[in-house]
Amino acid sequence: MQTIKITSRSGMLLAFVAFCCTAISSGVYFLTKDKIEQVMIAQQRELLLQVIPQDYFTNDLTQDCYVPKTEALQNVDIQKICMAKKDGDITAYAFESVAHDGYSGDIRILVGMKPDGEVLGVRITEHHETPGLGDKIETRISDWILGFDHQVIKQDNLTEWAVKKDGGKFDQFTGATITPRAVVNQVKRSALAMLGNLPKEKE
């Protein structure tokens, strides 16, 4: 009987401790929720500004976004489109795309582009490429990604949109061609898909 009482008290104590931990965790979450969201929005704004300069828009880029229908974009994996507007006119687009043919898996790419096909900037938002080789697609490692700045894509220069090993104008990395090839090809595919289906207003 004594053993049963001790076990019962221990069980009640554990339940009380678990309740207290849950209550504290919930309280911390609700207290920090707004701050976390503000930090995330600030990070998104900072990243968008790297591919679309501030003088291209007066609207809130983080709020003027939507998820497109994949089939409308030739089944190219474009996950979100944000529209830059100035004086009511769309001046540029920022869109997130995914290259599925990276050396170590998916490479997530953010592209800023004008309606005429001029690429304003490209940034890598996530990847798992080999450190010291494929990670040169990051601005903190090299300036390779800046080679997309102000390059124009159109039907009569598509052959240029490839790494030099494939006859194009973009450098590959020493000992690592797959990664830059995947990025260049996906920027090309997604930009062409966008040009063929440029949205006029948010759907």
Task: Describe this structure as you would to a colleague.
- The chain has two helices and six strands.
- It is α+β, with helices and mostly antiparallel strands and about 200 residues long.
- It has a six-stranded antiparallel β-sheet with strand order 1-2-3-4-5-6.
- The longest helix is centred in the N-terminal third of the chain and has 50 residues, at about 1-50.
- About 30% of the residues are buried.
- The mean pLDDT is about 85.
Task: Tag the structure with descriptive keywords.
membrane; EC 7.-.-.-; 203 residues; single chain; alpha+beta; flavoprotein
Spans of 5+ residues with little confidence (pLDDT < 50)? none
Shape: globular
User: How do the strands line up in the largest sheet?
Assistant: 1-2-3-4-5-6
Largest β-sheet summary: 6 strands, antiparallel
Order of helices and strands: HEEEEEEH
Tell me the distance between the termini. Answer: 69 Å
Number of distinct helices: 2
Helix content: 25-40%
- Please state the CA-atom Rg, rounded to the nearest Å: 24 Å
What multimeric state do the chains show?
single chain
Q: How confident overall, as mean pLDDT?
A: 84
Beta strands, count:
6
- Structural class based on helices, strands and sheet pairing: alpha+beta
Q: Into which percentage range does the β-strand content fall?
A: 15-25%
Question: What's the topology here?
Answer:
Elements: H1 2-51, E1 65-66, E2 78-86, E3 89-102, E4 105-113, E5 118-126, E6 151-152, H2 178-196
Antiparallel strand pairs: 1-2, 2-3, 3-4, 4-5, 5-6
